[in-house]
Amino acid sequence: MKTYKKIIKIDKNYVYFNDWIKIPLSPHIGRMGVAPPPPEEIPSGIPDKHGGNMDNNMLKEGSTLYLPIFVKGALLGVGDFHAAMGDGESVLMV
Question: What is the pLDDT of residues 46-59, one digit of tens each?
Answer without folding.
Answer: 889 999 988 888 88
